[in-house]
């Protein structure tokens, strides 16, 4: 099942995509997709509905983030061997964790804004997990039973903010628009093996990233197990699981985003995103 949120920013409504590709309005059956409304029990109720009984949505709607603001937006760094190598960093022996501010969440095709003072805004296509059942100390064997679904994430990053000074990664990962998520939240039964998914990202029509989740250092199940041993995972939390090689900072010479650039990215079965890059326009 493919779950979506559509409509103007701040007024999104929940929906689903039926087998024929038609978007259906779910607002009579669930308030939104966030917290308990993205829990496994609510998803099961939605799955039991007849899609033909739901109102069809007029085509051309803006797609919002497939999830409303999560309690936690957790990220795993350096989770592909070849990406760690291109950054010049050591292959991690355990997952590298950081956070993105939940306020950076945005729709899959919304503009990405270069932050004030940025010189090194970069791209990262990633597989994201949405938690459908919270818990602590979740075993690796049981981890997949806690997943509501998967989606595409562009973990947009500002490398100077991330790595210079005190080097706190959250500083370079959290600017407004730095968390495009969607277009769909796809339930595990449609995804199949999450460790066999192709990823890609293009900038201005040039392929920058190509990868496969098979080359992750730490699997989806292990990441859930590991994080839940350190904190309580809650229903509606997002975990984005790292990026394959090809980021701008790893190019020789490095390449970074500029106003007017266009990004196009996607993951097998999870849909695609397209973002225009715009300059900061505040004071």
Explained architecture:
It is a single chain. The strands form five sheets. Strands 5-4-16-9-10 form a five-stranded mixed β-sheet, with helices on one face. Strands 7-18-17-14-15 form a five-stranded mixed β-sheet, with no helix packed on it. The protein has five helices and 18 strands. It has about 280 residues and is α+β, with helices and mostly antiparallel strands. The mean pLDDT is about 95. It has one domain (about 65-280): Fumarylacetoacetase-like, C-terminal domain (Fumarylacetoacetate hydrolase, domain 2, Alpha-Beta Complex), CATH 3.90.850.10. It is globular and about 55 Å long.
Short description:
The chain is of the alpha+beta class. The chain has helices at residues 40-47, 81-87, 159-163, 188-191, 220-228; strands at 2-6, 13-17, 23-25, 73-77, 96-99, 105-106, 112-113, 121-122, 125-131, 147-154, 157-158, 179-180, 185-186, 198-203, 206-212, 238-240, 262-267, 271-278.
């Amino acid at each position: 099942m493919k779950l979506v949120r559509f409509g103007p920013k701040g007024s999104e409504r929940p929906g689903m995509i039926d087998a024929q590709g038609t978007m259906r309005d779910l607002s009579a059956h669930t308030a939104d997709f966030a917290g308990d409304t993205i829990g496994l029990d609510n998803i099961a109720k939605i799955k039991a509905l007849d899609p033909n009984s739901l109102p069809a949505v007029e085509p051309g709607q803006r797609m919002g983030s497939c999830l409303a603001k999560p309690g936690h937006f957790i990220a795993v760094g350096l989770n592909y061997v070849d990406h760690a190598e291109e950054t010049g960093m050591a292959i991690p022996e355990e997952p590298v964790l950081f956070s993105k501010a939940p306020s950076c969440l945005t729709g899959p095709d919304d503009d990405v804004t270069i932050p004030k003072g940025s010189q090194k805004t970069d791209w990262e296509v990633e597989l994201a997990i949405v938690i459908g059942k919270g818990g602590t100390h979740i075993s690796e064997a049981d981890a997949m039973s806690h997943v509501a679904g998967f989606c595409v994430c562009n973990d947009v990053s500002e490398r100077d903010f991330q790595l210079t000074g005190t080097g706190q990664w959250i500083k370079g990962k959290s600017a407004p628009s730095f968390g495009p998520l969607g277009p769909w939240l796809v339930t595990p039964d449609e995804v199949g093996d999450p460790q066999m998914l192709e990823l890609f990202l293009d900038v201005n029509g040039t392929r920058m990233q190509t990868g496969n989740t098979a080359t992750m250092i730490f699997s989806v199940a292990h990441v859930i197990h590991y994080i839940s041993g350190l904190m309580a995972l809650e229903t509606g939390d997002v975990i984005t699981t790292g990026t394959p090689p090809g980021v701008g900072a790893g190019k020789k010479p490095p390449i970074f985003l500029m106003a007017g650039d266009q990004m196009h990215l996607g993951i097998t079965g999870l849909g695609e995103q397209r973002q225009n890059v715009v300059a900061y326009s505040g004071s």
